[in-house]
Amino acid sequence: MTIRFAESARSTVGVEWELMLADPLSGDLVGRAPELLAALEDDSAAERHTVTGELLTNTIEVTSGVGATVAHAIDDVRRAIQAVRAATDPAGIALLSAGSHPFAQWYDQRVSDKTRYHTLIDRTQWWGRNMMIWGIHVHVGIEDRDKVLPIIGALTAYLPHLQALAASSPFWAGERTGYASNRALVFQQLPTAGLPWPLTTWAEFEAYLEDMRRTGVMADATEVRWDIRPAPRWGTIEVRACDGLSTLPELAAVAALVQTLVERFSRELDEGRTLPTLPPWFHRENKWRAARYGLDAEVIVDSSGSQRPVREHLAETLELLAPVALDLQCPAELTRVAGILDTGASYARQLAVADAQGDLRAVVAHLMEEFRAGLD
């Protein structure tokens, strides 16, 4: 199977953000996306941003255009949200973002009426119906497809760092899970989801897809649901491991971290260096640790098994990436990563609200307020 990788300008960036629709008083999810989307999709047709539906009718996704910088892409997202709020505010619908809703139940939600979604649910059954998860995706342009798999291999070592920063799903169906990101472990139950296979060349990726197509596992590359995957249609590497960020500044911070890491690895390849990788079993353990402990995790950072607190390793990584961020015009956004390390990720803030008020509806109210405040 030959897979064309689209032309894409190097280190351009795009972001996708899945948003929940909720009743502003009760905090319950509301499946009202279908009544809003026709007008929103038509209105965004002439814009750089897009507004679309998702698996569940309680979700709307906003997507940036191709940004020359992180700020460029985030500005698209801001305008998209303004358009969405122009529809949701009069309709009495609130917006919020996290990896999971604190107390909603899967059996109260409706699946969007699209063949691809019904096919997914029919195949995956209970796990598919439990996909009450929300995330963000970050795309970074790659100018040479031969770089794609080596960069994915190196970037996988930083998935726990990204996952810990974005972790925002400590509750599931009304229960405190004990995990910073319960979403990470739920999502990997889908076929073709989870950590990327350790492929090193584009030919190996094409062979993988041919095996999947021939055996009926998937129809095409869009059904690869890895935590990091090639996105051939757009000419990008797409990071999909993160929970839904609760605020727009946090979204910008994570996008900047992804963009600068990719560019740094791309420069290493330009210099003829081989990018470092970890054994797959270390990646699996790191993913679980980040899901369980968030920013308090200790992660494996090299092939010899050295372990470091993820906060410390992230702080060191930010120093290494600072010159790259200057070149990519995102130093302010990258600096916000340090702010998350200082103030705590969304999962910690949610747990603090729950402990203080003893009510998960208060957690939803907190998420709604954070979302609104982050747009100012």
TrEMBL record:
<comment type="similarity">
    <text>Belongs to the glutamate--cysteine ligase type 2 family. YbdK subfamily.</text>
</comment>
<keyword id="KW-0547">Nucleotide-binding</keyword>
<dbReference type="InterPro" id="IPR014746">
    <property type="entry name" value="Gln_synth/guanido_kin_cat_dom"/>
</dbReference>
<dbReference type="InterPro" id="IPR006336">
    <property type="entry name" value="GCS2"/>
</dbReference>
<comment type="function">
    <text>ATP-dependent carboxylate-amine ligase which exhibits weak glutamate--cysteine ligase activity.</text>
</comment>
<protein>
    <recommendedName>
        <fullName>Putative glutamate--cysteine ligase 2</fullName>
        <ecNumber>6.3.2.2</ecNumber>
    </recommendedName>
</protein>
<dbReference type="InterPro" id="IPR050141">
    <property type="entry name" value="GCL_type2/YbdK_subfam"/>
</dbReference>
<dbReference type="Pfam" id="PF04107">
    <property type="entry name" value="GCS2"/>
</dbReference>
<keyword id="KW-0067">ATP-binding</keyword>
<dbReference type="GO" id="GO:0004357">
    <property type="term" value="F:glutamate-cysteine ligase activity"/>
</dbReference>
<keyword id="KW-0436">Ligase</keyword>
<dbReference type="InterPro" id="IPR011793">
    <property type="entry name" value="YbdK"/>
</dbReference>
